[in-house]
Specification:
single chain; ten-stranded antiparallel sheet; 14 strands; globular
Length: 197
Amino acid sequence: MCIAGERIYRGRMLRINYTTYDVRREGDIINPRTYPDIMVKSPETGPQAQPYWYARVIGIFHALVSTSHPKAEERSLRRMDFLWVRWFGMEPGRYRHGFRKARLPKIGFVEWTDKYAFTFLDPAQVIRGVHTIPAFKEDRTSALLPATKSVARVLNPGEEDDWVNFYVNMQVVVSKEIYSWYSPILLSPALLIGICS
């Protein structure tokens, strides 16, 4: 892959469009400084597989690229959008979440030594933005990213440590489709309105 002019351009915001449970068009604005957390579909399979993975967007970029691969059909310049993300992992151990347990999903940043802690992601894989709540009881640590100053701490660049864990807020009143994603039963819009009232 060749990057035209060896230039990568930084964006400030990204709009993620999605369809709500009642087939309406909605969108989230992802901004690394104010609303940086996203969810993507998990590639995991099996009985204990998580349906979604979560990440914090550090940067939004695009570049004009081409390929010189001999088997490529298209060689002209094309725009490529990509996100630089810091991944969250699920809380390991005995913590269980879901509607039956009456607990929110609990996540934390992947440790910096993991080779996949920071990666690039195609924005087309993003389902929507998410709201995370620090798990205040778990406190803070610098073990996940020992650098005293880092661009990875996009919400508060002056901070020298991170929250150990976060809860993924499932805003049933605001986002009824989130409820339907995690719920084991199929709900009608009328029933959801009754629950949320």
